[in-house]
Amino acid sequence: MAKEKMKVGEISKPRFEFRTFGQGFDGAEERMARLSIPIPEKLWMRESDEIYIMSRTNNINNTKIRGGKMDIKTYVQTKDGLEQWNPLIKTDFPVSTDFLKSDIFPAFRVDLPELNKSKYTTDEFLAMVKEHPDLQAVSVFKERYGYMVNDTICEVAFVLINGAAVVTINSESTEISDVLKTLKDCKLEGFENINYLQAIKRVLGWIDKPLAS
Question: Would you say domain 15-204 falls under CATH 2.40.320.10?
């Protein structure tokens, strides 16, 4: 069976991903840029302000608000040290109470708060998050530089997590072998695979563990 052709900026089947966070990665960022094939100019650099909803009881559902939408992807499995994630939900605000009950709060794996309206705006939803003892909204700013190496979608991003500056670098594809080759070519072998949930919890102090560098 022919492998799926990866396209930067497009949603595909669930991908296997390597991502790590730290203050820098010994020149891997430059190697990734030099090894990349040309990609569309609109993906050279992108900026976004996002709000991650962190839950003390959830480590498998990545939940964030970006561009007025609630975006949730879920962890599927780990193979050969790579995590597979599947896009699950993307919905606009205001969001219905029924959807909060059926999809959003179950993703947080917390007790459902009292809901007395039929719909909730972004601000109303964030007010509920602020009052919940097991949830916290975290401001995340991303300056992302896109690449394509070995037919894997790659990125170097400079990230502010509640104002704390970190660097992240990643490679993802439906093909495990392509990601593993990219890690070798970019000299990223040996760095810990850390997803956004884990990185943010480490910055917040919810996980007593440093980043990868």
Answer: yes
- CB-based contacts of 184: which residues, under 8 Å, 6+ apart? none
Structure tokens at 153: 């979608």
For the chain, what are the domain ranges?
A: 15-204
Name the CA dihedral angle for 189, 50, 108, 103, rounded to a multiple of 10 degrees: -110
Q: Is 0.85 topped by the overall pTM?
A: yes
Let me know how long the chain is: 213
Q: In whole angstroms, how far apart are CA 114 and each of 107, 109, 126? A: 17, 15, 14
Phi, psi angles (nearest 5°) of residue 75:
-70, 135
- What angle do the packed helices 28-35 and 176-185 form, to 10 degrees? 120
Say how far apart CA 55 and CA 57 lie, in whole Å.
Answer: 5
Give per-residue pLDDT as tens, 100-142: 999 999 999 999 999 999 999 999 999 999 999 999 999 999 9
Residue 61 identity: N
User: Which residues are bridge partners to 50 per DSSP?
Assistant: 66, 140
**Measured on CA atoms in the order 77, 112, 68, 66, is the torsion positive or negative?**
negative
